[in-house]
Amino acid sequence: MISVAIDGPGGAGKSSLSRRAAKYFGFIYVDTGAMYRTIGLAACRRGLDTKDKSLILPMLSGLVIELKYNDAGEQRMFLNGEDVSADIRLPEISMCASNVSAMPEVRSFLIDMQRDMAKKYNVIMDGRDIGTVILPDADVKIFLTASLEARALRRYKELCEKGFKGSLQEVTEDMKNRDFQDSNRAAAPLTVAEDAVLLDTSEYDFEESLSMLCGIISEKTGAKAVEP
Ligand code: DC
After folding, report:
1. Is 155 in the pocket of ligand 1 (CB under 6 A)?
2. With 80 as the cut, is the pLDDT of residue 228 above it?
């Protein structure tokens, strides 16, 4: 099986680029952030303080988290049987996901689900620790990043399309805080794997970034396009 690990901070375009690259090569796209978001959502719905381990850990045994793919090949997240794929994208869930993801027990809870996907399929898996912890033997590791300004602007535009009424400054602050927290936690922090290829997309549009990403994957794995 071929596995491609893509890590990087929020808003770098990991999900949209990985999804398209996976389609291009006929691989399965695995969005691990969605799994942390599902746990964050579960905690949020229960009104729990997502920084409080003594409340979050007992909750885990009551959660059934499933990852499924619909007929269009899109990843859907299920929480105790309910499709929560839309709810986990609410802006307020981002920080909850980051909070729970700092707990090693939460990370262990999800690790098998992530590794099992890579055992069964050719995958492009994105997250924060894929190349460093989850798939240290991935065929290719890419650290996808962009400047804070570029990432915040992209995320802001994305949110506005969904009816977001907040400001760019708010989105920038939120992103900065989340980056700091994800990069400075003790458990599997966001770091560049030493054998990762660094791809900074600040100056490139989506199609240019996609073409660079697919070029790296193709060169390192020998994978060929299944779609033009
Ligand atoms: O990729 P995302 O923004 O949807 O991820 C939400 C949060 O989940 C992110 O702030 C950090 C956490 N996360 C993680 O700790 N490890 C991963 N592999 C993926 C996400």
Report:
1. no
2. no
